[in-house]
């Protein structure tokens, strides 16, 4: 079954809500409300066109006039700013800065490369600049491949993805919104982006701004672990669950629990009924099935464990046949 229908698209958007005015707000980063997005930001980035919008932000292609002035033949960057709804919120600058600070720490060839965080003084718009990526997002790829990817292609996406997230976790950075729309297949390989809902692992990376989940709730319904929907703080296990959904979807073309979110799937114990997708080698299935456990206590695998399973060589029938007989 292919559940990637237009009606399901809304469930793939990040659900993002600021708490009511009754909840105390963080100190205001700026006294003035933000203005309309100007054509020139920071005195040097000329907005050329919209590349994409997500639950929180809008990403534009912009020309860096400074680079151009110095003769750079490729002066284009991607420029991310918060959507108008989010940009007016008192925490808006801290939200974007948190994304910048977390992404900047995860220096990895499969994580988008960051340039700068700035606030345009005239409009009071905060924005980040990052490498301009070209290629389909995994969402777009899945739309074109409704039956999922064969193992050789799946592996070429899964291994870099798991390497990037394992690296981020080893540095104490959690992504918080792993899903096909936050991954892009560039000409030189996969890129993970959008650490906008990321967090530092509790007790690590002191000094980084932390999203206060009492003031904002944010998740993507189809990839959020049940414990997040229950109100638990983000932890590495929730990234593992989202990766499980993503990998299952890449190999089968369908989300493991269809249109249900993790809490609805838990009510019916659907994780006990999952079948191995045909494109997935048998040696990867125990790891993937464990990552998809709806109860975090049963989810006894980390990203490094998933990576080890997906990296392990596939046993060919010839090798199995040639295995020496004991005795
Ligand atoms: N560096 C980039 N280069 C090109 N396009 C990008 C880049 N970053 C994001 N995009 C596009 O913009 C969309 C929204 O970006 P994202 O960072 O996910 O915003 P949000 O936080 O609102 O989800 C992406 O799905 C993608 O299509
Ligand atoms: Mg996004």
Automatic annotation (TrEMBL):
It holds the Pfam family Pkinase. ATP binds at residue 80. Residues 1-21 form the signal peptide. Keywords: ATP-binding, Kinase, Nucleotide-binding, Serine/threonine-protein kinase, Signal, Transferase. The keyword Transcription regulation does not apply. Residues 45-318 form the Protein kinase domain. InterPro entries: Prot_kinase_dom (IPR000719), Protein_kinase_ATP_BS (IPR017441), Ser/Thr_kinase_AS (IPR008271). Coiled coil: none annotated. The keyword Signal applies. This is Serine/threonine protein kinase. GO terms for molecular function: protein serine/threonine kinase activity. It comes from the Bacteria. PROSITE patterns: PROTEIN_KINASE_ATP (PS00107), PROTEIN_KINASE_DOM (PS50011), PROTEIN_KINASE_ST (PS00108).
């Amino acid at each position: 079954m292919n559940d990637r229908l237009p009606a399901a698209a809304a469930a793939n958007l990040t659900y993002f809500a600021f708490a009511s005015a009754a909840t105390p707000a963080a100190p205001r980063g700026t006294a003035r409300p933000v203005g309309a997005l100007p054509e020139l930001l920071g005195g040097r980035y000329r907005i050329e066109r919209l590349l994409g919008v997500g639950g929180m932000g809008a990403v534009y292609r912009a020309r860096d006039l400074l680079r151009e002035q110095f003769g750079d033949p490729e002066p284009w960057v991607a420029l991310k700013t918060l959507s108008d709804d989010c940009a007016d919120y008192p925490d808006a600058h801290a939200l974007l800065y948190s994304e910048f600070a977390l992404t900047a720490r995860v220096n990895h060839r499969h994580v988008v490369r960051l340039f700068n965080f700035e606030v345009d003084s005239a409009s009071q718009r905060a924005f980040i600049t990052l490498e301009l990526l070209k290629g389909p997002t995994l969402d777009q790829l899945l739309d074109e491949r409704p039956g999922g990817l064969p193992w050789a292609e799946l592996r070429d996406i899964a291994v870099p993805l798991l390497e990037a997230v394992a690296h981020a976790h080893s540095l104490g950075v959690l992504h918080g919104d792993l899903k096909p729309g936050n991954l892009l297949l560039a000409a030189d390989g996969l890129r993970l982006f959008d650490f906008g809902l990321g967090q530092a692992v509790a007790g690590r990376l002191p000094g980084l701004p932390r999203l206060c989940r009492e003031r904002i709730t944010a998740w993507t319904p189809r990839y959020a672990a049940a414990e997040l929907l229950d109100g638990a703080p983000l932890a590495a296990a929730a990234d593992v669950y989202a990766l499980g959904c993503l990998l299952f979807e890449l190999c089968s073309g369908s989300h493991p629990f269809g249109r249900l979110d993790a809490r609805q799937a838990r009510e019916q114990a659907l994780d006990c009924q999952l079948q191995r997708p045909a494109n997935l080698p048998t040696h990867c299935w125990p790891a993937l099935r464990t990552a998809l456990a709806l109860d975090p206590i049963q989810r006894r695998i980390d990203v490094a464990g998933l990576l080890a399973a997906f990296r392990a060589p596939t046993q060919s029938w010839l090798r199995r046949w040639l295995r020496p007989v004991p005795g």
